[in-house]
Amino acid sequence: MKKQEFYKRLEKKGVSRRDFLKYCSALTVSMGLSHSFVGQVAAKIEKAAALRPAVVWLHFGECTGCSEAFLRTPDVGALILETISVEYHETLMVASGHKAEENLHHAVKAYDKKFVCVVEGAIATAYNGAYGKVGGRTFLEIAKEVIPHAAATIAIGTCAAYGGVAAAAPNPGGYKGVNDALGVSAINLPGCPMNPLNLLGTIVKYLNGDKMELDDYARPMFAYGETVHDNCPRLAQYEEGNLASELGSKEVEMGYCLYELGCKGPETYNNCPTLKFNDGTSFPIQAGHPCIGCSEPDFWDSMTPFYEES
Ligand code: FSX
Ligand code: SF4
Ligand code: F3S
Q1: Does residue 64 line the site of ligand 1, with CB under 6 A?
Q2: Please, which pLDDT band fits residue 253 given cuts at 50, 70 and 90?
Q3: How many angstroms does the Cα of residue 120 sit away from the middle of ligand 1?
Q4: What distance in angstroms lies between residue 192's CA and the mean position of ligand 1's atoms?
């Protein structure tokens, strides 16, 4: 697809060139690059959009909040949907029933070893996967059938990455993240939900053949290299000892540190303070709520009780 066509398609979806550059700028910051790289990031997105890979998007045990996160950010959603070609997505596609099943088989066959598999949700592994099914087949069966045919797999959200809420104790279904359940090497983009700009950044880096440095939990360093605390707007309050435990809610809103209210920002790796959610509007701590560590392996269990200092 030519560059001009890409812009035309974006404009049709209400995303102007100026909007496009705004998101390039946010992505540039999230990648830890200086503002002078915005043009290069824009060129990388254009290159990725020209390749427009087929994507098979699987849903397993989750709340669909990750899909919602990008659908509720219409411009970012449009950018993602113009950069990839979604061949199968249970909550977005029109088809249902047998027709939907057919679409999945067709996409896997037609784009064998070429498509990117995006997985949203955890996989039930106990009793042969009996605790989680779509169309009469277990998540485990579907994952085993589809993922080996993908050129790359991206596990979005903490559920797909590490099990997340679905794997909270006592976890009778034996829910696990994709890598643990299948023994594969998916890139993990945790967060409950993941930030859609991190998905876009990962796809763009992958399609440009850029080196993707990952941490020990398979998270890209460009997004998960620093803790929430490192970039928190309340960091100065933390350092000055202005803790919010005995304040009224108005003062909490005004910017006192939430550490004594159980904030897990110091042990949570994610770039939410930089990118924020809902089109850069806010993120939990800005809204006056402690970070609950939603992007860490073992969230939920290791992060509860939420409102106690760890
Ligand atoms: Fe999990 Fe995402 Fe939390 Fe929900 O899909 S990470 S429950 S926001 O939807 O998987
Ligand atoms: Fe750190 Fe949380 Fe305090 Fe922010 S609110 S400075 S992340 S402890
Ligand atoms: Fe999650 Fe904490 Fe960010 S709760 S959204 S990692 S501020």
Answers
A1: yes
A2: low
A3: 7
A4: 5
| Range with the poorest average pLDDT among 46-50, 122-126, 242-246, 249-253 | 249-253
Q: What distance in Å separates the CA atoms of residue 223 and residue 187, rounded to the nearest whole number?
A: 12
State in Å, rounded, how far the first CA of the chain is from the last one: 51
Cα separation, 299 vs 40, in Å, equals 36
Ligand 3 centroid to Cα of residue 248, in Å, is 22
Query: Average pLDDT, whole number, for the chain?
Result: 92
pTM, two decimals, is 0.93
Lowest mean per-residue pLDDT among 171-180, 235-244, 262-271, 280-289: 235-244
Q: Domain locations in the chain?
A: 3-222, 226-310
Name residue 12's amino acid. Answer: K
Query: Is any ligand 2 atom within 6 A of the Cβ of residue 294?
Result: no
CATH topology assigned to domain 3-222: Rossmann fold (3.40.50)
Pocket test for ligand 2, best of 234, 261, 307 (most atoms within 8 A of CB): 234
Contact call for residues 143 and 58 (beta carbons, < 8 A): yes
> 172 in helix, strand or coil?
coil
What's the burial of 180, exposed, middle or buried (CB within 10 Å: 0-12/13-18/19+)?
Answer: middle
Architecture of domain 226-310: Irregular (4.10)
DSSP β-bridge partners for residue 191:
none
Most confident of 84-98, 211-225, 242-256: 211-225
The b/e string for 283-310 (b: 16+ C-beta within 10 A; e otherwise) is: bbbbebbbbbbbbbbebbeebeebeeee
